[in-house]
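Minutes, project huddle
Topic: does the predicted pose make sense with zinc ion bound?
PN asked that the exact inputs be recorded in the minutes so nobody has to dig through chat later. Recorded below.
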Amino acid sequence: MTGKTHVAIGFAVAVAGGHLMQPISLETYPNLLLQEGVPSSVLIQLLAMAVAVWVGSMAPDLDQPGSTLSRDIGGPLGRTKTTAFVGGLILLYLATRLPATLSFMPYLRWGFLVVGGILIMMAILKHRGLTHSLLGMGLVCIAVHWGLLVLLAEGVSFANSLFLPFLIGYGAHLVADGFTKSGIAPLYLPFVPMTQKHWHFPIYIRTGSYVDRVVLRFGAMFLIIVGFVYWA
Ligand SMILES: [Zn+2]
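Predicted holo structure (tokens), as shared on screen:
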């Protein structure tokens, strides 16, 4: 399934899911924004939650060099497995060599470590393997949760409200890929071939087909609008 369709589906599920979970509701924000004197922190939180849905919706395809998020995060290094591997090693090496004299260096070092690590994973992982499984989702959630705790400690007060939007995006991606011809292996375990057999729902589509690029993508966008209008 294409990245844009995944993002549209992720947002559609987040809007519906947000309605069911009022405290983290995405669709109550338009109301808040219409009120006078909305603190800019609410706007920033809304944007951050949207980014979390967007990243979560595309994160599983980081196992595929050339995917939208792979190129967004890795730039030219995210194009192929070779560039990802070499670039990842260089970034990890640079992270250990950065002089600690400038105040922003700790952030730069963390940036290099995270992007370098993601690039190495991109080079090593098989497409629609670990990242498209429940085990992979659990591991990614632990990493993201830890990252958000670091943000919280750094003073980003709404960091804990970003976990669920990310999880919704990620989960919706896996379910959506279950409706494609290549399917996914939800119980995938590394080195256990019998768990790696791909599986799809009885109804499925082809990636890049008209149904993928038009019907599902615009259908999901329509649901997002309906969700906002209906619940606003
Ligand atoms: Zn995928």
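Observations noted during the meeting:
- The chain has two domains: 3-62+128-231, 65-126.
- The chain has a mean pLDDT of 86.
No decisions taken; revisit at the next huddle.
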